[in-house]
């Protein structure tokens, strides 16, 4: 499955386009354990959306991620856990041990009534139990829905209710840097409005006092004592759902992106092996939280499917200081490092003193994901971290694609700063104009679409297939629309230019403008608001909110803080606006549509050319907004 040179890439790419079915069937059948081999390869329709890969095959992803390695290389370390406190011991878990831990916890889930197809919500910090909970859920054929530990009670409740989770797995508390964060307490607050939840399983991390309700709440440790450490993996159909992961779109309500067992397994494993060029014995460190798709595919499943050693870090890049990542790399002799542009820019800002005396000589490959990696950050990463010796893989993909789509293969594809470069085998990108017409040739810009299914394409949005169809397959009929703008340069290299829809990318976190507006509008005394993203040196984008109040605020600064509290409560701290400007009106067209283009320009600080404002209902509001701009 490993491509080792550029000619092999070109050949694989060619095959994957000429005969995608044969291409993927070969990879899928030769590199994985199937309980029942598939005979059907692909059935698809992008017009009335459906995709089925390896449909009549049967498997369990954990057999592939754990059992086969536990048998062949039992003492290879599967997971390294680096705790928040640098002085605390790290923990290494071998494949043999991980299989036992996962099997034991799988039995705990079963003992608590979880069955194949049930949904399990996981709300935990970055500790080994999080990875174990994910894998245990998959082992018994239940569907995990991991909710990032930074989301609010309200957000947890919305996600639990949308997919009717039966069980929640959490911890007493979490530690991030020098902060202690409640987890169980937040879950308790969420559960007030979640009648579907029958059991809550609590792992202990901080020994924070928590309320434990008789009959509902169970301690992880105690429950484990009651069960055995072997649990046969449930045999799944390839198209049975493996997980749901909620992500933001243009509308207010996050959608549950659904991925399925077979295709996801094949694509996560294939892309991990090829993009990072993992060699046996390498230590691989992905800094993403398992609560995001990067953590799912490239901290847990991709590495484990390849029998790799994956390092998970509980803390933050700036604790105890801005050298923490480099310490971890030196301490664990990390060979492959995968992080986000926002982290690179932030650490770059702390200066190079934090790099002094850090032995980064084991590094071989550097990766980036989540947002465009600007040239300045690219060069710093390349020079200071990679010492000019490590290829940078700038990987473009999305929650919906589940795996890397456009990226260099480390050491194989020639890289270019700020470019995701070329599509992986099996990925057929196409640029289209506003009308959906293909833009051919090189040196062009357009909206990025994909014209053929790859194994881990989104299957549906939980409980609402129409929404999946209309979000991804109706803008440009017959194509999957990514929501991203993209340039293809003279060499045919792809550069992602950012979202073209109402989705913002704040520090690599995806947040819908409508979600933030809804949260602001629920604050007392607020009439209306409009939210846009604007360029931010470290976060990539910041959130700029224009807010109309019922009355002129008496204490505007206090009101701004109150609004931030409301947004934190409703969504989570990651969605807090960076700037709030109180305005008396918003630029609207005669039909009542907010002209966001103008608001974006003002937020960017570029008011020289606002474009056509002739359709505005009341052009004077624009003057006022420009004058009051922050
Ligand atoms: C959006 C997807 C993919 C996992 C993390 C984010 C942006 C992602 C890149 C990149 C430029 C990128 C896109 C995309 N994005 N990677 N290498 N260069 N932009 O997943 O939360 O689903 O967000 O992130 O805009 O659509 P996500």
UniProtKB/TrEMBL annotation:
BP GO annotations: acetyl-CoA biosynthetic process from acetate
Gene name per UniProt: acs
Family note: Belongs to the ATP-dependent AMP-binding enzyme family.
Domain AMP-binding enzyme C-terminal: 515-593
EC id: 6.2.1.1
Domain Acetyl-coenzyme A synthetase N-terminal: 9-65
InterPro entries to which the protein is assigned, alphabetical: Ac_CoA_lig (IPR011904), ACAS_N (IPR032387), AMP-bd_C (IPR025110), AMP-bd_C_sf (IPR045851), AMP-binding_CS (IPR020845), AMP-dep_synth/lig_dom (IPR000873), ANL_N_sf (IPR042099)
Molecular function GO terms recorded: acetate-CoA ligase activity; AMP binding; ATP binding
Domain AMP-dependent synthetase/ligase stretches: 66-453
SUPFAM superfamilies cross-referenced by the UniProt entry: Acetyl-CoA synthetase-like (SSF56801)
Keywords for this protein: Acetylation, ATP-binding, Ligase, Nucleotide-binding
Domain of life: Bacteria
Protein name (Swiss-Prot/TrEMBL): Acetate--CoA ligase
Classification of source organism: Bacteria, Pseudomonadati, Bacteroidota, Cytophagia, Cytophagales
Top EC class for this record: ligase
């Amino acid at each position: 499955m490993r491509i080792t040179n550029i000619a092999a890439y070109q050949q694989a790419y060619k095959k994957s386009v000429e005969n995608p079915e044969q291409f993927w069937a070969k990879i899928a059948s030769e590199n994985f354990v199937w309980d029942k081999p598939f005979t059907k390869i692909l059935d698809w329709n992008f017009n009335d959306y459906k995709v089925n890969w390896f449909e009549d095959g049967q498997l369990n992803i954990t057999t592939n991620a754990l059992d086969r390695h536990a048998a062949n290389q039992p003492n290879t370390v599967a997971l390294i856990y680096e705790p928040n406190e640098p002085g605390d011991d790290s923990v290494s878990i071998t494949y043999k041990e991980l299989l036992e831990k996962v099997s034991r916890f799988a039995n705990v889930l079963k003992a608590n009534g979880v069955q194949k197809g049930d949904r399990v919500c996981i709300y935990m910090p970055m500790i080994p139990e999080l990875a174990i909970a994910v894998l245990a859920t998959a082992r018994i054929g239940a569907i995990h829905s991991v909710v990032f530990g930074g989301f609010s009670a309200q957000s947890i409740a919305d996600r639990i209710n949308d997919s009717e989770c039966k069980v929640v797995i959490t911890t007493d508390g979490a530690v991030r840097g020098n902060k202690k964060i409640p987890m169980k307490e937040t879950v308790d607050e969420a559960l007030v409005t979640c009648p579907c939840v029958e059991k809550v399983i609590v792992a202990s991390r901080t020994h924070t006092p928590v309320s434990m309700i008789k009959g509902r709440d169970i301690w992880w440790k105690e429950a484990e004592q009651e069960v055995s450490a072997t649990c046969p993996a449930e045999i799944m159909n390839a198209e049975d759902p493996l997980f749901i992961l909620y992500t933001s779109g243009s509308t207010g309500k996050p959608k549950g992106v659904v991925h399925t067992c077979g295709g996801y397994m094949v694509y996560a494993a294939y892309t991990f092996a090829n993009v990072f060029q993992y060699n046996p014995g390498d230590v691989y460190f992905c800094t993403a939280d398992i609560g995001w798709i990067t953590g799912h595919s490239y901290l847990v499943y991709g590495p484990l499917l390849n029998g790799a050693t994956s390092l998970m870090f509980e803390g933050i890049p700036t604790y105890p200081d801005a050298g923490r990542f480099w310490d971890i790399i030196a301490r664990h002799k990390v060979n492959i490092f995968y992080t986000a542009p926002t982290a690179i820019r932030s650490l770059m800002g702390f200066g190079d003193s934090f790099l002094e005396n850090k032995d980064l000589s084991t590094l071989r490959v550097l990766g980036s994901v989540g947002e465009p990696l600007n040239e300045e950050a690219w060069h710093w990463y390349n020079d200071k971290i990679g010492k000019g010796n490590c290829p940078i893989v700038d990987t473009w993909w999305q929650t919906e694609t589940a795996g890397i789509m456009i990226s260099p293969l480390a050491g194989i594809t020639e890289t270019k700063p700020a470019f995701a470069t070329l599509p992986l085998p099996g990925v057929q990108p196409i640029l289209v104009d506003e009308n959906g017409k293909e833009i051919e040739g090189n040196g062009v810009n357009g909206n990025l679409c994909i014209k053929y299914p790859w194994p881990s394409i989104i299957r549906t949005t939980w409980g609402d297939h129409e929404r999946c169809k209309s979000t991804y397959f109706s803008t440009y009929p017959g194509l999957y629309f990514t929501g991203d703008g993209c340039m293809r340069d003279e060499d045919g290299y792809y550069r992602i230019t950012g979202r073209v829809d109402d989705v913002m990318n704040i520090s690599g976190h995806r947040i819908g403008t409508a979600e933030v507006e809804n949260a602001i509008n629920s604050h007392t005394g607020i009439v209306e608001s409009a939210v846009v993203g604007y360029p931010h040196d470290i976060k990539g984008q910041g959130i700029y909110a224009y807010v109309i109040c019922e009355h002129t605020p008496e204490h505007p600064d206090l009101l701004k803080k109150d609004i931030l509290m409301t947004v934190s409560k409703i969504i989570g701290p990651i969605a807090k606006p960076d700037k709030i400007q109180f305005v008396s009106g918003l630029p609207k067209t005669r039909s009542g549509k907010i002209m966001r283009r103008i608001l974006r320009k003002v937020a960017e600080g570029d008011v020289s050319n606002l474009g056509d404002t002739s359709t505005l209902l009341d052009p004077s509001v624009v003057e006022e907004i420009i004058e009051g701009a922050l």
